[in-house]
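Lecture notes, part 5. Sequence design as translation. It can be helpful to think of inverse folding as translation between two languages: the language of shapes and the language of residues. The source text, in C-alpha cells, appears below.
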C-alpha cells in the first residue's frame, strides 16, 4: 500500500482530470494509481493525502472514524470569545449542527518550518479599515466547505484556509518539510500506526 502527503496549492482541483483545463493533481503528482483520500476545495490549500488502497481511502474519509483535521484559518476581523465558544460548542448550519471544534486564536500569522507561510498566488480580499486574524480550528467532521460555513455563521468570514495536519499523536501527518505543490511518501511507521487504529475501531 502507498500513502503520500501533498501540499495542494490554491486554485488546484482535487482530481487528476478536468474538462475545463483547470490545474489538477496531475500537474504536480506523477504517481499512477493514487487517488485523493478526501478533498480540498479549489480555493483551499494545504495537506492532502493520496493512496492506492480503496480500503484505506474509505477509512480515512468515512465520518465514523473521526480523524482530526487541523486548519489554519485567516478570517475577517478578530473573533471575540463568544464567537470562539460558539465554534467550540457547535454551530447550526443548513445541514444541521456541527460537532464541537477545537479552536484557538493565533498570536501571529502561521509559520512553516520557521518560515512565513508562502503567499497565496491570488491575494486575499483586502479592506483597508477591516483587520484580519488567524485562528486554528480542529474538526473530526468533513462536511462540504464546513470551516468556511462555520466561521461565516458566527460573523467572521474565512479569507484563507490552509489544512495543516491530519491525525493526532504518533499518527500525526503535517505539512512540515513541504512547499506548495510538493509531495512525499509517508513513513511506513506512520502508515502502520494508522492501520492499527483502523483495526481497533
Amino acid at each position: 500500500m502507498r500513502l503520500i502527503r501533498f501540499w495542494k496549492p490554491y486554485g488546484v482541483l482535487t482530481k487528476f482530470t478536468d474538462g475545463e483545463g483547470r490545474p489538477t493533481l496531475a500537474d504536480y503528482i506523477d504517481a499512477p494509481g493514487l487517488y485523493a483520500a478526501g478533498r480540498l476545495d479549489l480555493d483551499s490549500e494545504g495537506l492532502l493525502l493520496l493512496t492506492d488502497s480503496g480500503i484505506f481511502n474509505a477509512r480515512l474519509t468515512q465520518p465514523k472514524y473521526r480523524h482530526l483535521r487541523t486548519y489554519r484559518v485567516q478570517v475577517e476581523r478578530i473573533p471575540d470569545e463568544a464567537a470562539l465558544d460558539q465554534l467550540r460548542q457547535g454551530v447550526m448550519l443548513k445541514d444541521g449542527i456541527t460537532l464541537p471544534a477545537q479552536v484557538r486564536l493565533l498570536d501571529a500569522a502561521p509559520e512553516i518550518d520557521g518560515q512565513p507561510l508562502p503567499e497565496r498566488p491570488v491575494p486575499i480580499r483586502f479592506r483597508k479599515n477591516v483587520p484580519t486574524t488567524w485562528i486554528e480550528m480542529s474538526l473530526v467532521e468533513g462536511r462540504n466547505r464546513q470551516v468556511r460555513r462555520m466561521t461565516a455563521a458566527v460573523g467572521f468570514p474565512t479569507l484563507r484556509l490552509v489544512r495543516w495536519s491530519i491525525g493526532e499523536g504518533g499518527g500525526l501527518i503535517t505539512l512540515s518539510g513541504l512547499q506548495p505543490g510538493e509531495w512525499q511518501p509517508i513513513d511506513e511507521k506512520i502508515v502502520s500506526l494508522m492501520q492499527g487504529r483502523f483495526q481497533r475501531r
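The translated text above is only one of many valid answers, since several sequences can fold into similar shapes. The first strand starts at residue 3 and ends at 8.
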